Amino acid sequence: MPSWLVPRGLAGRRGFLSCAAAVPFAAALPGEARAQAYAPLIEDLVVQQVPGAPIYYVLGHPGVPNGTNQGHTSNAGFVVTDEGVVVFDTLGTPSLGHAMLQKIKGITDKPVRHVVLSHYHADHIYGLQAFRDETGAEIVAQTKALNYTAAGNTDDEAAAPRLAQRREALAPWVNADTRIVLPGVVFQVAAEIRLGAHRFQLVYAGPAHSMSDIMMLVLPERVLFAGDIVQNGRIPFMASAAVNTKNWLAGLQEVSLLEPRFIIPGHGKPATGAAEAISFTDTYIRYVRAKMARAVAEWTEFDAAYEATDWGPYRDIPAFGASNRGNAYRVFLEIEAESLAAGDTAKPAQ
Ligand SMILES: [Zn+2]
């Protein structure tokens, strides 16, 4: 375990202290990696600053990654300390990651020391390649991120088919040179990075939206990078076997417990209060769960239950068409499994 990474427990919350595990990390060798020519962006990144703090972020567009939004659909950010920069997430293409690094260099000449990934999904990690090749930063994620391999040994987003899909959908920004970069340092439940006068508390909140969801609380400012536990302004993607909406709701409660003063979600606009930040995701997950729980309890087939549900409150939200039906089906299966585990197997009397 590197000396900067301090394992910590969440006293009283999860009841145990986990030890951070380190995997071998190879620092970038001089001359080994050179910034390659990345396809230019059609729209510049806009960096915003948390008021009164050396904390910066960029906001992605709503909707799913496509040629119009150039794959810029997720948020990312960075914190400038006396001793270097900590980055949280790297955007959805190597070009975007490279552009973000240029923005950092325009604000500080301090080196990027750590890159923390909220979770391993394409829209947050494809920019990592630029940070791997152009900085000596250590790449930090939750242990399960190591399963995100091109060999397809993953219980989350299937890495290889996703890369093939993005090479088509996001050409020329995702291309034959785009590769998946795994973390060099991983932890299981909680860890802390200390750099300059700042502390960065890393908290595992998964499996929820993915197997490897984490959040990062920046102290002393109490600014929370919430990753995809918190999403606003679009229908969150839940159609994966790794999604656990029960844990996801618990993760949203954790956001409140961390008492952040400013929250930057994985998608959508930031908020200054936890209640405001979590409201959209929390309400949506509870809505889908309530509708599908009723269908499971009444032994209604999924298709019929889906058609009978009033999706009016969500129909006009970006990514509804791409994600909602798959989300509902996944939640239907999850609740079916929950009720089987609870021994709720008797078909109700007709
Ligand atoms: Zn995302």
For the structure shown, list the relevant keywords:
350 residues, alpha/beta, Metallo-beta-lactamase, Chain A, binds zinc ion, globular
Strand order across the largest sheet: 2-3-4-5-6-7-8
Radius of gyration: 20 Å
The computed structural class is alpha/beta
Shape: globular
What is the H/E string?
EEEEEHEHHEHEEEEEHEHHH
Q: Indicate the CATH architecture.
A: 4-Layer Sandwich
CATH superfamily: Ribonuclease Z/Hydroxyacylglutathione hydrolase-like
What is the name of the CATH topology?
Metallo-beta-lactamase, Chain A
Low-confidence stretches: 9-34
- Mean model confidence by pLDDT: 88
Strand content: 15-25%
Domain unit count: 1
In summary, what is this structure?
The chain has 350 residues and is α/β, with parallel strands linked by helices.
Structural overview:
There is one protein chain. With 350 residues, the protein is of the alpha/beta class. It has one domain (5-273): 4-Layer Sandwich (Metallo-beta-lactamase, Chain A). The chain contains eight helices and 13 strands. The chain has helices at 94-107, 122-125, 128-134, 159-169, 245-257, 274-297, 302-308, 320-341; strands spanning 5-7, 48-49, 55-58, 76-81, 84-88, 112-116, 138-142, 185-187, 190-195, 198-204, 214-219, 223-231, 262-267. Strands 2-3-4-5-6-7-8 form a seven-stranded mixed sheet, with helices on one face. The protein has a six-stranded mixed sheet with strand order 1-9-10-11-12-13, with helices on one face. α1 packs across α3 and α5 (245-257) runs antiparallel to α6 (274-297). The longest helix has 24 residues, at 274-297. The radius of gyration is 20 Å and the shape is globular. It starts with a strand and ends in a 9-residue tail after the last helix. The structure holds zinc ion. Zinc ion is lined by residues 74, 121, 123-124, 228, 266-267.
